[in-house]
């Protein structure tokens, strides 16, 4: 394990940084507890001469917690449920998935 992976493990274990969640497969109904870091950046979309700002919901999940997320899988955080939309993307080090979500 390199220093970056060790740092990520500590960040995801910190309750101030990451939250407990449950991943549910859309195809097999398999469930797995995971730790996630929530992000909600605004996204600007241009349409003709107009610009629209919309709120998004994204999660960062360790690849070691969730090796193969897929579009349509469900993520439950507390009482909130989200569906993965679009293709999950890994970081340069191949340690973290970024998941684009929509409310379920």
What's the short story on this structure?
The protein has one helix at residues 3-13, and strands at 19-24, 31-39, 42-47, 50-55, 57-62, 74-77, 80-90, 96-103. The chain is mostly beta strands and 104 residues long. The chain has a six-stranded antiparallel β-barrel with strand order 1-2-5-8-7-6. It has a two-stranded antiparallel sheet with strand order 3-4.
Topology:
Blueprint: H1 3-13, E1 19-24, E2 31-39, E3 42-47, E4 50-55, E5 57-62, E6 74-77, E7 80-90, E8 96-103
Antiparallel strand pairs: 1-2, 1-6, 2-5, 3-4, 5-8, 6-7, 7-8
Overview of the structural elements:
By secondary structure, the chain is mainly β. The protein has a single domain (3-103), classed as Thrombin, subunit H (Beta Barrel). Helices cover 11% and strands 54% of the residues. The chain has one helix and eight strands, in the order αββββββββ. The chain has one helix at 3-13; strands at residues 19-24, 31-39, 42-47, 50-55, 57-62, 74-77, 80-90, 96-103. A six-stranded antiparallel β-barrel has the order 1-2-5-8-7-6. The longest helix has 11 residues, at 3-13. The radius of gyration is 15 Å and the shape is globular. It starts with a helix and ends with a strand. The mean pLDDT is 90.
